[in-house]
Structure formats: C-alpha cells, structure tokens
Amino acid sequence: MITWPGQARCAVAVTFDLDAELFWHRLHPGAAERPKTLSLGEYGITRGTPRLLDLLGESDVPASWFIPMWTLERHPVAVERIRERGHEIACRGVADEVLGALEPERQAETVDRAACALEKVTGSRPRGFRAPPGRVGEGFGDVLAQLGFGWSSTLFGDDVPHYLESGGTSTGVVEVPRRWEHTDHPYFAYNGGPVAFPPGRSRIASHEVVLEEWKTAFDAYHREGLCFVLCLEPQVIGKPGRALLLEELLRHIRSRPGVWFATCGQIAEHFRRHGGQNPPGHPERVRATWTEN
Amino acid sequence: MESRNPMTGFSEAPRWPGGARCAVMLSFDVDGPTLWVDRSTGRFEDVRGFSLGAYGPYRGVPRILGMLDRLGVPATFFVPGKTIEQWPAVVADIARSGHEIGHHGWLHETFFDHPPARQRDIITRSQDLLHEVTGTRAVGFRSPSGDIAVGTPGLLAELGFSYSSSMRGDDRPYRWCLDGRRSDLIEIPAHWELDDYHQFVYHDDPAQPRGLDRISSTAATFDIWRREFDGYHRFGLCYVLMMHPQVIGTPARMHALAELVAYIRAHQDVWFATGEQIAAWWRDGARQ
C-alpha cells in the first residue's frame, strides 16, 4: 500500500466542481427559460464560492477546482478569485458533452479546447481533469496522456491513486479516484419539475446524517491509510448551514493525527514518485482483458 | 442589482434594523386543495386529494395562528384566491391577527405557463377578492412553485407590488433589475432546503413525490432548518422558512416548529419580520 509524505497516515483532497447554472442546463434544455432554476446555479458563483474560499482560507486547506469552459466564459471573476487564493485549477470539459459518446479524435478536440481556454486565463496548462457527467470511453486515458494531462479524478475503482491504463498498458496518467458517497449533490441538490433533480424528487438529506456519514467514512480512510476525496459543488455545499457542516467536517479531520491535506495534483505527483504499478486484479488492468461472454 | 456584486466574499453582511444580526421570515403558503385539483378548471376528481389539501386552511392555519400568537412573532401568509373564496373567515382571521397576506395566484398557477395578459388577470382577480374579504391588497407576491416567467417581475412592478419571493439565487434580498435599470421591486429569495413541502408531502395518486420516496422524519427536517439557521445567523443573512399549512400544520410538526422558533428567539439579535417589512427596510437604503 502507498505511504504518504512525512508521518501522514492518509491523504485528503477537497475538490469542487464549479458547474453553476450548467448543472441545470445539462438536465433539461428548458432550464434556459426558467429564471428560478438558473438562480440555483448562480448562487454557487455569487454566494457559495466566496464563502467557501473564505472558509478554506480560515481552515488552511488547499482545494482542487474543476472548471468547465462554460463556467469560465460566464464567470471569469470567480475563476480569478479561486486562482488568487492559490488553489489548484483543473479542467472539466467544455459544457454538456458526454465524452464516451464522441469519437476519440472529437474527445481530444473537445478536451483540448477546454484546456486551452483555462490556459489562456490562468497562464498555465491544466494538469488535471475530471470528466463532465455521463459515460467515459475506453480511450479516455490515452486522450488525457496525448493532451499532456498528468492526472484525472473521474473514476471510482479504488481508494488510492493508480494509473489509468489503455489496452493493458499504463498511460502514465494518475487517477485520484473518488466516491459518490463523498459527493454533496446526491444528498442535497434539489429542484422541482420540469428541470427536476433528483428525477423522483426524493427528500433532501439532513445535514446531521451526511455529516455523520462523512466523518465515519473519513475515520475509516484514516484508519486504513487511504486517499479521501470530497467532491463538492459551491451551489450545494455553499449554503449557510452546509458551509458550517463542511467547517465541522474539516475540524474533525484536522483533529486526527497524520492527515495530509493536498490538492489532487500533489497527490498524483506523490504517487508518481512513490507508488508502484497497478496490482493484478486492479479494475484498470482487468478492463484490458475483459471479454464479452 | 446592488446586492449581487458577485465576488466580494461574505464578510460584508447586510445591516438589519436595531443592529440585529440576521432577519427571519416565517412564511406559509395556504395552498389548500389548489395543489390537488385541475389547475385550469379548479375541478377535482379525487375527494381524498382534496381533503389532503383542505386540511391546511381548516386545521393548519388556526393552529399556526395560535402558535404565532403564543410566541409573539409575525408571519406572512401567501394565499391563492381560491382559498380566500372558500375559507373567507380563516383568511379574515389571518388579517385580523396582524400577519401579512401575500399574493399566491388564483389556483396556484405556474406563472411560467401563462401569457402576460393571463398573468395579469390572475393577479387582479385575487387582489380584488382579498380586498373584498380583508379590506387590504397584497404588496408581496410569491409565484407558485417559484416558476415566474421572464416578464413576471416587470408586471409585478407595474401593478405596484413591493416585493416578490420566488427566486432561489441569494440568501439576502436584492433589487430586481428591470429593462437594465435598478427597480424598486425587491426579491426575497427562498430555498428548497427551507421548504417543508418536498420533505414531508406524500400522496399515492398523483404520486408525490414522483418516486414515492419515504416521508422524511420530523427530526431530520428540523435538523436541516436548525443548522441552516445557525449558518444564516453566523453570516448575517435573511432566513426564509417556506411552509404549507397542509404539511406543517399537523400536531407533531407544529410542536417541532414552535421549538425551532423558540430556539431562534433565544438569540437576542434576530429580527423576526414579515416580507413587507423586510422589503421596505431593504428598499429604504438598508445597505447604504
């Protein structure tokens, strides 16, 4: 198993997907004409992001922000503020494209467009990528490697970093895997019809239940020496009470000995230096030998 | 819109009257059976659904008025015209108790679905009836489901409304920008997580919620509301609870609400206000 820098027992990455109004546009084309629905996403930019930036600053926690080109073009000031605070900025595609539905060349074109847009604003080529929602194709790792990405945080197959593989060979791109359980919107995001989320309009989870869930999960990652990745959206976690929930969670994590708060990029770099190859049976290796029937 | 400076951070909390740290608006949408009938005709097919909604004005509102009176806090009731027509005595009671009555359509229409002339008719018809029953006209408007059409705010301004409470995009009031200009129409946004309806409502046919999810526990919902209040208080914002008498008006939920209000009141620096008071404060230069 991987060891972490210094005396750290586990790694913690706090990540944000700055989808803003795009979250709702992706669900339903009718969102464009619904001022109330779009205002849910706008909240993430105008209120959620500044509140979270202040909270991260007070907690001295670095974060990785995944920015779609769509958000970058509409809310450049927000991206500038994130950059000014020294956080990591990574790529989240253009807008509502489903990568797995595109031919590999089109995938590369699309991701490159998004990366170039970020580079223009931040002055450096993004090293990390998180795919927009929807299926991801088999050639994903190759596309990222070809475009010079060093890491991704898209998949779910492990609790520690590993290499993305393609055809049984490492692409050299490090995956920092995540979990739906440590993502805020499955618990908290809500809107009524017709741009409904969730489609069955299930209840909003209580702060207390989710906070306990995340504390319990972190404690287990800490015990077992793994890499805990929180996936958050400012319009969801940036509400007044949920910001306090995040503050309490970060305080809980800090209270444990040997926690390494790091950006995904730092974690990927550490893995590149000290991690080994993917072991036999790893999802990335098995995929190469997967046969139909 | 002056309050919407996007990235100033949350250090600049709004100012509230008397040096209060945050504002609290208790609001009740007295939809009654309008949620359970044909929204274009007002007819109902199902007596069960009708009774589910009618519980609100019949049982819920008197219980709520009693609780507000005991705790000494004001509230705003958004009432569709059809509720006024069918329960005039209840609506007159609300008005007599000193709480605010706001506009909420005639049959809880989704304003997005109606052309401007029809929206105007809906607003005027309910206003006239409210005036007949209580002697006053509403100054506040909450669009049923929040789904205003793009032109609805302009119509509200033209018809003399002081404020709307339909959007979700902020945690404090702001001025609507109409035709590129700052208007006097104030928005007091609400939030899904501070809404009782989607947490508690349940009916088998029509299915509510759509996926027939479990009914949320009272403790879970009030945990959300209490923790969100703590956040609004910390950051100095405008906390708007959006409730429905047919949902919140049951004995146990009313008890939990009374406990939450007592918890909030235990903070010395909270301004309980109606939508009308909050809008007036905001418009009159609270932020200058």
For this entry, give a set of tags.
heterodimer, A: 293 residues, alpha/beta, five-stranded parallel β-sheet, four-stranded mixed β-sheet, 9 strands, globular, B: 288 residues, 10 helices, 40% helix
Total helices of chain A: the number is 12
The SSE string of chain A, one letter per element, is EHHEHHEHEHEEEHHEHHEHH
What class would the helix/strand composition of chain A place it in? alpha/beta
Total E-strand runs of chain A: 9
Oligomer: heterodimer
Give the radius of gyration of chain A: 18 Å
Share of helix of chain B, binned: 40-55%
User: Greatest contact pair?
Assistant: A-B, 47 and 48 residues
* Overall residue-averaged pLDDT value of chain B: 94
Rounded to an integer, what's the Rg of chain B over CA atoms?
A: 18 Å
End-to-end Cα distance of chain B, whole Å, is 14 Å
Net shape of chain A: globular
DSSP strand count of chain B: 9
Uncertain segments of chain A of ≥5 residues (pLDDT<50)?
A: none
Strand content of chain B: 5-15%
Provide the β-strand percentage band of chain A. Answer: 5-15%
Task: State the low-pLDDT regions of chain B, or none.
Answer: none
Average pLDDT number of chain A:
96
